[in-house]
Amino acid sequence: MKFLRVIRFDRSDDHVFARAAEPDEWAVSGAFSFIALRPSDIVGKTRQAFVNGFLGLPSFGRSTFAVIAEMGDAERGLVEGWLADHALAEHGAPDRAAALAAARDEIAFVAGLCEEKPINTVLAVHRHLDDEGAIREAFREIAPPGEPRHARIWDIADDDT
């Protein structure tokens, strides 16, 4: 299965977010972390995390960028457990079954986001509150600077040349 991993191009996330995710951690959108916030709470580093931070696992730190990678079943199980434990401890999940259901929903969302994109695609997220106060997310691909992703390595010529 394809899933997101934290990628860091520099140490700027250490300064942007209250807690930065570690490179190569698994990552989810993490928008659920902001559901209980009021608009007046979304300031400073919390605003940075809300507007453009992926949630790294297991640190629960934030990352500006994530890259699509392959994930095995064992790793998926770890992510599911980390998310469920977090839902119970930090977000008031009523019981383990509800926490696991929420974790599976978040995993399915991220897997669906990655499904049709190539491995090593770098993504960024942008969030905002709509007019009704609901969280809206948009994901965009970050293209590498300069050359296209695939370089031409040969030409086809007629035998006469």
Topology:
Blueprint: E1 2-7, H1 13-16, E2 26-28, H2 44-52, E3 54-57, E4 62-63, E5 65-70, H3 73-90, H4 96-114, E6 122-129, E7 135-142
Antiparallel strand pairs: 1-2, 1-5, 2-3, 3-4, 5-6, 6-7
Describe this structure in a few short sentences.
The protein has 161 residues and is an alpha+beta fold. It is built from 4 helices and 7 strands.
| Overall number of strands | 7
Strand portion, in percent? 15-25%
N-to-C CA distance: 47 Å
Helix and strand sequence: EHEHEEEHHEE
How many helical elements? 4
**What characteristic shape results from the CA principal axes?**
globular
- Structural class by helix and strand composition: alpha+beta
Rg of Cα set: 19 Å
Low-confidence stretches: none
How many domains?
A: 1
Please give the order of strands in the largest beta sheet: 4-3-2-1-5-6-7
Helix content range: 25-40%
Average pLDDT, all residues: 92
Describe the protein's architecture and organization.
The structure is a single chain. By secondary structure, this protein is of the alpha+beta class. The chain has one domain (2-142). It contains four helices and seven strands. The protein has helices at 13-16, 44-52, 73-90, 96-114; strands at 2-7, 26-28, 54-57, 62-63, 65-70, 122-129, 135-142. It has a seven-stranded antiparallel beta sheet. Helix 3 packs across helix 4. The longest helix is centred in the middle third of the chain and has 19 residues, at 96-114. It is globular. The termini are far apart. The model has no long low-confidence stretch (mean pLDDT 92). InterPro entries: DUF6505 (IPR045442).
